[in-house]
Amino acid sequence: MAFSIGADVASRPSLRAQVERALSAAIVSGQLEPGELLTVPTLAVKFEVSATPVREALLDLAHRGLVEPVRNKGFRVTAVSDAELESLAKIRLLLEPPSMRDLAPNFDLEREAEMRELADRITQGAKEVDLKLYLEADVEFHSRLTSMLGNPLLTQLVDDLRTRARLTNLQRMAESGHLDASAAEHHELVDALVAHDMELAEEIMRRHVGHTVGIWAGRAETE
After folding, report:
1. Which residue from 202, 157, 212 is spatially nearest to 182, judged by alpha carbons?
2. CA-CA distance, 3 to 6, in Å (whole number)?
3. Fewer CB within 10 A of the end CB, N or C, for the chain?
4. Average pLDDT for consecutive 10-residue bins of the chain (223 residues)?
5. Which domain CATH number covers 172?
6. Same domain, 94 and 66
7. Which helix (H) or strand (E) holds 67?
8. Residues 6+ apart with CB under 8 A from 145
9. Residues forming a β-bridge with 77
């Protein structure tokens, strides 16, 4: 169970949230692999905190579907099936394309530079096949865009749907040769938002999410 937790979580507020964030990042990035068993005492020592925030964080992760309780043992990191990946993508199609359509007319042009920087990191991750870099930048990119709509619940839902997919989808996309194309769509989306083009922003986001459904299901892209 070798994964980095960054700065000492005990020195920051909300220990439960900090532990959950660190474990979630490790699971999503693949540092903690499906089937790996996590125990409260071991994690409490690793994070240098009491057992309570660790147990609460693991229960939160179980609610999100990232781990599952194992009686008298701890929590096991869950796997994500192809059927679940496809279901996640279909739910995202209901939320994300309309959200980008709503964002386009009022996109703050002063935010363009930060979004371009994130899009560049995503492109770099695809080019170097650095899936951890790609994933972290991708999650941050879409989280920031969604947050611009001022609806925290929507942002939370989109973030949760994306983290549930984890690294598995990127590995599949890299193997299929579609990762570079997916990376390029982030800059295309910024272009559409900067132009305040509602229709184009929605279309790009729909394509961005929609083509992964075919990849995960083992089908050729239809768009």
Report:
1. 212
2. 9
3. C
4. 54 77 83 92 95 95 93 93 83 95 98 98 91 85 96 93 74 77 94 98 92 53 43
5. 1.20.120.530
6. no
7. strand 67-70
8. 99, 100, 103, 115, 189, 193
9. 67
